[in-house]
Amino acid sequence: MSARARLGLLQVCLAGVLWGTGGLVVQLVRERVPMHVVTISAWRVVLAAAVLGIAVLATRGGPALGRLLREHPRRTVVVGSATAAYQALYFASVTLVGVSVATVVSLGLAPVLLTATESVRHRGAPGRARALVLVAALTGLVLVSVGAGHGGGTGPSPGLGLLAALASGSAYAFATAQGEVLARQTSPLALTTATTTVGAVGLVPIALLVDGPHLTADPGALALLGYLGVLTMALAYALLYAGLRTTSGSAATVATLLEPITAAAVAAVLLDERIGPLGLLGTALVLAAVAGLGREDPLAQPSGTALVAARARPSPE
Q1: How far apart are the first and last CA of the chain?
Q2: Which of 68-72, 81-85, 223-227, 311-315 has the weakest average pLDDT?
Q3: Residue 18 CA: distances (Å) to CA of 23, 172, 185
Q4: Largest CB tally within 10 Å, which of 24, 123, 153, 174?
């Protein structure tokens, strides 16, 4: 794997680590203000869009953003809408079937779907190394979810929750695949700003329909919401899209499985929650899988479709 590809993988890993801190921060917000998780998610994308808009103005990135919207308006809206959808569907799944099943299904389905898609695109089964990476990652994800205290009850509506988790994972895979194409043709800042703004437009109306307070003057809650918007949304997605310039979508979804590992580690350090032997084994498997992504594998290279699209149009950078 080239140095650029390794840097891209590192950027995606950092995005997963940042996402992994989000769950704890959401809990801390809800301890201070009884906000619905959808309302918190809406604040997250609104604040992220505002910060990204300021960054675009400060870096004079308006022309790149304008070109993206002119040349790929539909795909940009699709990626932003899918990003908002998988977050909302994941939260719905958590409330219906529980965190463990929601996490395993939604995060585990995406790399499987993307690996299958890339195999069809390349007209061949994934190599042995990629298959082992995928199996190790998914096994580790299950063990982390079960062993890190994510288990418990299955929720009030397991059937609907499972469907929501499946839809969330499918939307996540779709957003990553479509975002990969755009990431190779525009700057990460422009792409993150556009898709986050679309996500905000989609989530805010939904948030207004749910129960609970929609505003707060609590300074601690506002600081936590700012963290969610700036670091776990604006920065994390900028890192993801930067990484997708040199990393395949299937590899990226495996790398972002660092999210549940980070969540378990943060809970163990700050909340004194024990990961347990199964969680430790799962953590080791996911880390081994992420390390295995650095090996040469045809499917780890930029996808043919994305490269053709990137060469067919002049880069706006």
Answers
A1: 25
A2: 311-315
A3: 10, 17, 25
A4: 174
CA distances from 85 to 36, 91, 168, 201, 280 (A): 16, 10, 7, 12, 31
Q: Residue 189's closest CA among 11, 59, 26?
A: 59
Kindly report, residue by residue over 140-197, the tens digit of the pLDDT: 888 877 765 555 455 678 788 888 888 988 998 999 989 989 999 999 999 999 999 9
As to burial, measured by CB atoms within 10 angstroms (0-12 exposed, 13-18 middle, 19+ buried), residue 216 is middle
Using alpha carbons, select from 200, 203, 227 the residue that is nearest to residue 22: 227
CA–CA gap between residue 199 and residue 61 (Å, rounded): 20
**Element (H or E) spanning 291, and its range?**
helix 276-292
- Number of CB atoms found within 10 A of residue 103's CB: 25
CA 90 to chain CA mean position, Å: 11
Closest listed residue to residue 283, CA positions, set 258, 254, 305: 258
The span from the CA of 317 to the CA of 185, in Å, is: 8
Within 10 angstroms of residue 9's Cβ, the number of other Cβ atoms is: 24
Residue with the two structure tokens 């898709």: 195
Encoded tokens for 230: 């700036």
The token pair that represents 266 in the structure block: 């943060």
* AA letter at 25: V
Out of 116-130, 190-204, 234-248, pick the least confident. 116-130
What is residue 299's predicted lDDT score, i.e. its pLDDT?
39
Lowest mean pLDDT among 61-70, 149-158, 267-276: 149-158
Contacts of 24 (CB under 8 A, 6+ apart): 263, 266, 267, 270, 271
